[in-house]
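Lab meeting minutes (informal)
Scribe: AK
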Amino acid sequence: MTFLSQWITTKDFASLKPINVFHKEHGTPPKEKSTFTNYHVHFRKKFTLKTTDNVFINISADDYYKLYVNGTFVCKGPAAAYPQNYKYNRVDLSPFLKAGENILAVHVYYQGLVNRAWVSGDNRCGLIADVFQNGKFVFGTGESWRYSLAKEFSGDTVGYETAFLENIDFRLEEKGWKEPDYNDEDYHPAVCIPESEYIFYDAPVQTVDVYDMLPEKIVNLGGGSYFIDFGQEIVGSFYMHATGERGDKIRILCGEEISSENPFLARSDMRCNCNYDETCTLSGKLDKFEFFDYKAFRYVNIFAPEGAANESTFRAVVSHHPFKEVCKIKTDIPHLENIWNLCRNTLKYGSQESISDCPSREKGLYLNDFVISGLSHFYLTGDRQYFRKALFDFADTAIVCPGLMAIANCAFMQEIADYSLLYPLCVINYYNATKDKETIEKLYPTVCGILDYFRKFEREDGLLENVHEKWNIVDWPENLRDNYDAFMPRDTFGIDCHNVLNAHYIGAKKIKNRICEILGYDEKENTVFAEKAFFNAFYNAETGLFCDSEKKTHSAIHSNVFPLFYDIADEAMYERLKSFIMKKGFSCGVSHSYFVCKVLAKLGAYEEELALIVNDSEHSWINMLREGATTCFEAWGKEQKWNTSLCHPWATSPIILICEDLAGKFGIELEKI
């Protein structure tokens, strides 16, 4: 896609040279640091239309924008992306326009940090837009646009430096910048960038849905203080109006849990390393609390001067990817419907422009997580484009390493070998669900590139050894690896030959072969030699189990699940391995429960699969419900990880397992919506 207009920016950024933030994780990061951080700017354009029918805008910004027309919020975006495949949105403006003079206002944000949420810290900031009416170009970004800096947002970072606290000082807010009567002369002329480095995606990406949600409960604590409960975990921001003396302070706490010491106090210092504790300063006039970024929260506290906060305006502004369900579960099996709904809520609120690792701490798209969240989201919504986009987002990381990065669409360089080798599984899962042959043909070179990258770590027998450029993670967190004995500390990349990584490698080759069959390609991998070597290296004939390493001293559940999942184990071993897996249960991380259950389905052990899904041990979705979950946890329980996220889409495998394996069995039915 090509824009007709020019990229515009501010005087601050016009002379800056872009920083190349991309490098191998073990490589050399750029010496330069971003010149600006937490940079907010308002761009504005006044224009006149005779009629308002059929007007739309193509719009993009770096890092992010919020679009207003005549003072009314329209949408926000774009989805994070790399400059060589940048995203844009196409939006219908007609409902917001009037015949005569109109004002287009765009709040653009540049975060300036290197993290998992943004492709930022690169000295790139600005906006581009084309406006069309009845298919004809009307105007776009250029020198006639004006801008003003917004200096009212400030605060420390939270999470993995993925968000700034906003601490809005309404005294510094540009008075009514969204209002149509605000004079152009108070803004500076935009600076045009004649040749921008952006290459735009071939089609517009859908904007997130944004809507209001009223609290389930408001408790007036007296003296201007309030406790608010929205009834469930949500993702968005808190909104209200306040009027007080100029310089008055209002403190706002947001949290996923209630304090253990006070039933009317939100735990703002959350388990996931986010402390949502913000203090805003009033202007002396009517102040509207419109926070720019989103949070994950359920509870809110307001501490304000008495009479300042307007209780009737309290609400959440929720945001997530459009979420129209196509099916729901019907069953009498205890807890199963609650587990389904738990997963459903997690996918709904965890899906922003991409399906986040978590919408609080990371805010990033991780490949391992996407194995689960991408497919479960598709089954719930039928939205193949969202699934497809993520596959191409990960393919774009090949600009850094042909073996792919662990996270897509960000400036944080992290490489995890296991995750890379799961990409072919995501591709074939997409094809199996959609039968979209054209897409997997486009992704086939990425699959080949991954395998070609890992070949340099093959030893003579075809097994991988000392994959020193990427982590070997096995499962996460460390305490849910079932004492896997071939794993080294987190910051150690090169380790000896071990089971799980090689199972993924052989499996990736087999999946490539399946893709070749679909596409009619004669480029198949020979896995027989490596499978024989796998048995020699890891199989213990005395126990009838696969071991974690060539030392053959320990057999974790992971070391026996993956040989089954990838059809490496002999059929004669199936019963022994099934018994071992049922004995172990979910002695693994939450995301890896998907693989445990899928191998049971492969063995026809559907009753055992269902029993694991609805088990009520400490390693279960029932345990999450028991601990008050309204969205899935990152671990099986709040205390099972040192920084547990309480909204984690990688825990939503029951959606897949029910749709693929259990629907139509045991009185479990899927109803179309």
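Next up, CB showed the second protein from the same session:
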Amino acid sequence: MSDLLIFGGTTEGRALAEFCAENDIEAYVSTATEYGGDIIDKAEKLHILTGRLDMEQIARLIRREDIGLVIDATHPYAVQVTENIRRACERTLTRYYRLVREESAPVDSGRYFDSVSEAAAYLNGVSGNILVTTGSKELKEFAPLHDRCTVRVLPSEDITAECGTMGFSRIIAEQGPFSEEENISHITAAGAEYLVTKDGGRAGGFPEKVSAAEKCGAKLIIIKRPREQGISLERAKEMISAMRKRIAVVGTGMDGNRTMTAEGLEEVRSAELIIGAERVVSSFKDMVKEIFISYDPNEIAKHIAETEHEKIAVLMSGDCGFFSGAEKLLPKLAGYDVRVICGISSAAYFCGRIGVSQNGAELVSLHGRRGNIVRRVCAHERTFFLLGGDIAPKDICRRLCEYGLGDAEIYVGENLSYENERLTHGKAEELTDIETDKLCVLMAINQRYERYIRGCIPDGEFIRGNVPMTKAEVRGIVVNKLCIPRDGIVWDIGCGTGSVSVEAALRCECGTVYAVDRSAEAAELTDKNRRKFGCDNINIVTADGKEAVKTLPKPDCVFIGGSGGELGDIISAAIEKNPAARIVITAVTLETLNESIRLLEAAGRECEISQTAITRVKKVGAHSMLSAENPVFVVNSE
């Protein structure tokens, strides 16, 4: 059956139906009334449905007929109908596009109202005959004025009978849109001093109503059009034409042969054109098909647009939903009839081969990219790495050993599902020199993984020196106020021992902390502490804060624990790179506090200020003595 469903009965709906008929395109066309269906030219591949449908009925229709694309060409004022269609498409995961009429320029001679009821209330307070051209649905609002009204409606016996029930005796039952001359005739026949209309645009004959009213001296009462966004009639026609091309984006599994699903293989066999990277399409070169070799989404989309083939299979290795090129390709295929068929992912295949469950595993792609390795392994019992770029299994094992995780259990898989498949198992410390194929995967199992994110880590756990350190309780307040995203970028300016950097890094497992300090000793201590706590997502910058921030990436959060007299430059750089960056400053002197407030307020930022005083208890002989830390001010700005 058809993949296309058009909701209309409007001028645009009829135009789309005619376009489908002229181009031999099968489509369902739904109209609210039988009359709306009757005026659409009958064609073999047009299936006309009449009657109003609610959201549930629309959803059932979409599922029953396996609709792939819905174009909503209903009247601009049919707000509830549009909402029902949109919600039904959301529920059924169906592509939906709203066709929007071009808006008319404001009419100086018209009086605008937000609703029909407001217009009717206004007319109730004035005298004079009225021609109502808003359609039959809203006539009940004008029923109290029936003795002064002529109503123009569709030529349907049901509609005219309903008008009579509401008390209207002067009825013009004709199909529009109407010419200026016809509008003048109707205004004159009604003796109308007021013409009530919606802004139906050019397609709805609105300009002809305006000119006729002005020539007849009738006052225009205009119901404002609801604001909406969507596509034009021409764009809708382009999308319908594109539906001739049926594109299957197929995940080929590991080798594109034995591990491809039967459904995917059927799509490839029935395709007229196969597209994909050389390695992926090699298994299908014996088929009598045209083949286009490319993995670039722009090249693929361009070739699809230019080819005359209508049945196309685009092949992606593995699973289209698992770190696949399909993610970048699909937006470029908007408007086509696209179906995605997932294959067996490398993670699923590999876990099956080594007998390890995927449940709870962290999935990380290092295929052509870099990322946090140690932090991910520290935070998860099982971490799966998809490789294929500059990072090889031996690099991961060496990194783990550097951070004290040499006992992590490692599985490596190469050339999965091919004849030369190789699986390797051992400890990280045993595999630091392993040579592997470039395209491979790795699973790290860490029995000592972190079961929770630590906060307020005791001061004594950090490697200390002669540089300042933000104490545990204050550190806990600071890190919480930073509200660090899991993939965030954090600046720690004046990092000292790196205690704040470490706690920030624990929270942005997929992000990066930039620890900045001019002191070489501070940089060395921060390096030791990042290794102790498994935080390879800390980048250390040894430089003045003013100079360092010039080259740092856009921050989500900034902590300034020591500025070296460059507070203003650091704040300005952070806000310039990201006006929404959250900034937290600690101050132990009133001068620093006042300067922080002044600089932030000058930058248009509001400040939340708190002061904390920590008192610890120490044992002195048989007694417990209170030992107070210096009070610290915390300035929070977002």
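CB comment: DSSP finds 22 helices and 30 strands in the chain.
No objections, moving on.
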